[in-house]
Amino acid sequence: MQSKKATIEEFISYISIERGLAENTVESYLHDLNSFNNYIFEELTLSYYQDVTESNIVSYLVFLQKTGKATSTIARHIATLKSFFNYLLRENIISTDPTSNLETPKLSRKLPKILTVAEVEQLLQQPDTSTPAGLRDKCMLEVLYATGLRVTELISLRINQVNYETGYVRCFGKGSKERIVPLGRIAKKYLDLYLRNGRGKLAKIPSEDAIFINHFGKKLTRQGFWKILKKYVRKAGIKKEITPHTLRHSFATHLLENGADLRVVQEMLGHADIGTTQIYTHLTNKHIRNIYDKTHPRA
User: Fold this and answer.
1) Per residue in 265-290, pLDDT tens?
2) Residue-number span of the structural domain to which 271 is assigned
3) For the chain, how many helices (H) and strands (E)?
4) Is the domain of 201 the same as that of 246?
5) Based on CB atoms within 10 Å of each CB, which residue in 40, 211, 242, 299 is the most buried?
6) Among 33, 42, 34, 43, which Cα is nearest to 99's?
């Protein structure tokens, strides 16, 4: 019987290579499984995965609930455990799947926070484009708002993923799925300016081909981008609670408010299920209602 650590390593390798899950998703699976292992092997003193029963897993989920974990977090843990035990069953490491009767709790979808067009304009004006780092920041914010890319997709962009003639970027989303997204005139302008006048002054590593790099010349991290965004949000005087996803949400909502087709927005966002994109229609319906209430004489 192989060690628990080796079993998890093989599972992580499986979901990374064979299933092609994104790096962030793989990290979440690993985090969840380490938490689960600590509970069943330390708290419940079980020996191996074939000893785990459905009641053990329910006990673990109750433990998560008692420690204040959100419903969305518990739902993610359930999804992780279902995937893991299904893998163990197929590999003949266990004979029965203790998660087969578990149901994922239904989540109430929160409407994403978005910026108004005026707030986006205010935010985009903050970087000082007279410096290489400021030009990079301006370019990142413009590209993010113009394309609706996820932050991970943005910082993973390579120089050869931009087609200047057609004005498109080629990016790789969840599950390494490729999609082509239009850049837009202003984003294209600042990307060109940054690559000609800014990036070369930040570049210190000839082999680094990421478009957006930090002052060490290495690919910018998600944490690095988050710090940059928070700085400009403060400078812009925006009081809303902002996340790295806010410009993506704003991109989608502003497109739909201006009449874009939902299927086209789904394609640009890289959503596998149009139901995920439809959450933005709730925001646009609210926008339409506000306009109606303000303008109709009998509203």
Assistant:
1) 888 887 777 767 777 776 555 555 56
2) 117-294
3) 14, 3
4) yes
5) 211
6) 33
- Who's near 272: CB < 8 A, 6+ residues apart? 174, 177
Distance CA 223, CA 50 (A): 39
Closest C-alpha to 113, from 290, 238, 296, 294: 238
Distance separating alpha carbons of residues 231 and 288, to the nearest angstrom = 32
- Global pTM? 0.61
**Same domain membership, residue 269 and residue 130:** yes
Domain annotation covers residue 10: yes
158 in the same domain as 66: no
Tell me the C-alpha distance between 219 and 5, whole Å: 31
Active-site residue list: 150, 174, 245, 248, 271, 280
Contact 115, 135 (CB under 8 A): no
What span, in angstroms and rounded, lies between the C-alpha atoms of 283 and 116? 12
At 221, the amino acid letter reads T
Domain identity same for 12 and 71:
yes
Do residue 133 and residue 278 come from a single domain? yes
- Taking only the tens place, the pLDDT of each residue in 88-122 is 999 999 999 999 888 766 655 666 788 999 999 99
CB within 8 Å of 118: residues ≥ 6 apart: none
- When divided into structural domains, the chain yields a total of 2
